[in-house]
Amino acid sequence: MAEEQDTEIRLPVLATESAIPSGDGTVWADVSPLLNAACNELRDGELIHGENFSLFAAMSALEIMDPKMDSGMDNGRYHSVDEAIESGAAPIPLSFDKTIDVLRIIDVMDHLLACEATWHKGHSLAQTVFSCIYLLRIDRTSPHALLHSYCRIIRATCNAVISVVSEGRTHEEEDLFIMAFGLPLGGEKDEGCLSSLNAVEETLCRQLRACKAPTAKKRVVEDLEPLQTNPDLEEGLCRALLCRLRFRKHFYHLLLCMRRPQGRGLELARKHISSCLLELKHLHKSSDFLRSVGCLAYNNALLAETTASGCQPLGFDANLNIRTSAPAPPRAIKTLSWEMALDYFKKLLDDLDIICSYSLELLLENVLQFVVEFQKRQPDLVARAFLQALLIQDGKLYGRESIFHVICRASALPESLKNHDIQKSEALMQLGQLLINLLRILCTNVAWQRRKLGKVLQDWRVIYVKLEHAFRKEFGESSSLSEENACTKLVRHVLMWLEEQTYWIALRFLSLGFELDLYSPEEYCMVYWYLYVILVKLAEKTHLKNVASTDSAKRKGKKKRDSIVDTTKDYRTPPAVMLLKCYICLAEGLAVMLAALRNELKILQPVSPFNSEYERFMQHFEHLQKACLPDHISYQSFEECTTQAELSTLVFYNHFKDALRIAKELKSSFANDPNRLAELRCIEQIAERNSIALNVIHRVGAVDPTLKISFEFSYHPNFAVAVVKRS
C-alpha cells in the first residue's frame, strides 16, 4: 500500500500516482480512512505495528505525515520539475530585457557556488546544487550559451568531486555526499564542457575589449553585439561574468590535474590554484557593483545572502528533490551565505595548495608527519579525499613505490633486501594492507580517525605475532648461509619497525582524545599517566631501531681493522628520540602533578555518580588494553604509581625543567624544520609555566584555601598548562 495525503495538504492524487507508478502485482489503495480511524483510537505513545515489529525496528521507523520524517510531506510550491517549469520558475531566457537577464544569470551562478559549498560541508547533493531547476533540465538551457556552459561545468565538477571522494572511501563519514539520487550527473565529457565554456569566455573578452575601445572604433574593430543594452553597465557586467567563468574553468582544471597518476599534475595544479584565488578576489570585488545595480533585476526583490547582489535568484527550489532523498529522512538545509562560500573555497584552495606543494617523500616517517600536520588545519572532506587519492594509488605509495619497499625503507633495511622473495608471504602482504589502511584512516576526520585507529590497534599486534611466526618458518626452510643472514636481518628490522609503528598509532589514538575533548579534568591524571607509558615504549622502540640501523651501516662501511668499534660507544641519540623525551618529561610531570593535587589538596577528585574510576579507565583505554599496549599495564599499575605522589618530590625531580633543557638543546637539530621549531617553542612555554605554577602551589597551596587551580590548553592541543589564581 502507499499513503495518500489528506485533502488539507492540497496534494492531488495524480501527483503521487505519477511519481510512483503501479507495477506488476501492485495496486495503489487509499489508506486515508484507515489512518483516520486509527488516529481516533490510538492514545499518546501507541502505534500500529505487525507481530514482528521490534524495538530495534521502531528506532528506524518513519512516522507517516510527519514533515520531519516523511519525505512525501514536503511543503514546497511544486511537486515535480515539470510543474515548476510550467509555472515559470525557471524561464529561458531569464528575462527578455538583456540587462536584467545578465544580472539574473549572475545571481544563479552565485547561488550555485553557495550550494556547492553547502554540499561539500556534508549536505545532500539533491537539495543543494541540484535544487537548481536549470541543472535538472540542462537541455532546456542550450539556446542560452552562457547559462548552458555554466551548468555543464557545474555538473562536470560535481562528477569529478564525487569520483575522488567515493574512490577514497572517505564518504563513509557522510554517506549522503556521494549519493546521486538518480540525478542527471553523467554523460559530460571534459572536452565538451570546457570547449563550450572557452567559447563563451572568448565572446565575453571580445565584448569587454569592445566596450573599452574608443567610441570611433567601437563595433568597427569587432563586429559583435554587446552583452546587454546598457552601455554604462557593460564593462562591470562583463568583468563580473568573466571572473565567475574563469574560476569555474580553473577549478575544474585543478581537479583534473590533481587526479593525474603519480602526482604528475601537481605542479600545473598549483598554477590553477593561483588563478582560482585571483578570480575569487575579482569575484569578491564585483559585489559592490552588483549590489548597486541588483535592484534592476527584480521588482520588490527579496533579500538573499547567497548572491553578491543580495537578490533572490530564479530557478531554485530546495524542496523539489526532497522525495528523491529517501531512504534518508528529509533534512532542513541552511545554505551557506555567499561570503561564507567564498571563504570555504579559499580555504579549500589553500589546503589543496599544501597538498600540491608536498615533495612526495618516500620515507614513511615523513609521510605520517605531513599528514598529521595537514590535519591540524582541519581540512574538509574534499581536501582530505584528494590527499588520500595522492598517497594511495593502485596499492602503491603515490602510485610509484610498492608498500613492501616503503616498509623496508622505514625499517632501515639495505636496498639489496627490497626484492627478497619473502615479500610474497601472506603475513607481509597483510602488513602491507594494514599500512595502506592506516594511511587512509589518517586522511579521515579526527572523530572517525580515532574510532578507526582504536579498532586497528589489535590488528597490528596480531600481525606482529603472525609475522614473527612466518619469518621463523621461512628462516627454518632456508638452506644457504647468505639467505639465512638476509632473513635474520629482515626479521629483526621489520619486527622492530612494526612495534614502533604500533606504539605510534597508540600515541595518535590518545592524542586525538584531547582534540576531541573526550577527557574531563578529573581524568587528566590517568590520561597523562598512560600517555607517559606509551611515550616511553615508543622512544624505546625508536631508539632500538636507530641503533640497529647504525649498526648495519657501520658493518657495511667498515674498511679498516681499527675502524671496527662498538657502535654503542659513539652512538648519538637522534633528534626524533630526544623530542620524544621532551614529551615524556611533560607527560610524567603533568601526571605526577595531578596525582599530587589529588592526594594532598583533594583537587580534581574522580567523583562520579554513574561509574567508578576503574570503569572510566577501561572506557578510555579499552582498545589499548585489548592490544596489550604495553604488556602488564592495568588500572592497578596506575593506582600504584600515583597513590604516593607528592608535590615535594615533583619539585625536587622537576620534569618540566628537564623538558625545557632538552627543547633548547634540540633547536639546532631542527633549524631547517619550521614545524618542529614551533613545536619546541610550545614545549618551552608549557614547561616554564608549569614549573612556575608547581613552585607556587608547593609554597602556598596547602595554607591558602582561596587558591584555585585549573588546566588550560593554550599552547598545545595535548599538553595542559596549570593556571593558579586566587578566587
UniProtKB/TrEMBL annotation:
Tell me which UniProt keywords the record has, alphabetically. Answer: Cytoplasm
- Report if keyword ATP-binding is assigned: no
- Main location, first listed in the record: cytoplasm
Q: Where in the cell is it found?
A: Cytoplasm
Give a single Pfam family match: TPR_NAA35
Q: Which residues form the NAA35-like TPR repeats domain?
A: 354-722
Q: The organism sits in which domain of life?
A: Eukaryota
The residue ranges of the NAA35-like N-terminal domain are 45-185
Q: What do the Gene Ontology cellular component annotations say?
A: NatC complex
Q: Which family does it belong to?
A: Belongs to the MAK10 family.
What this protein is called in its record is N-alpha-acetyltransferase 35, NatC auxiliary subunit
User: What's the source species' lineage?
Assistant: Eukaryota, Viridiplantae, Streptophyta, Embryophyta, Tracheophyta
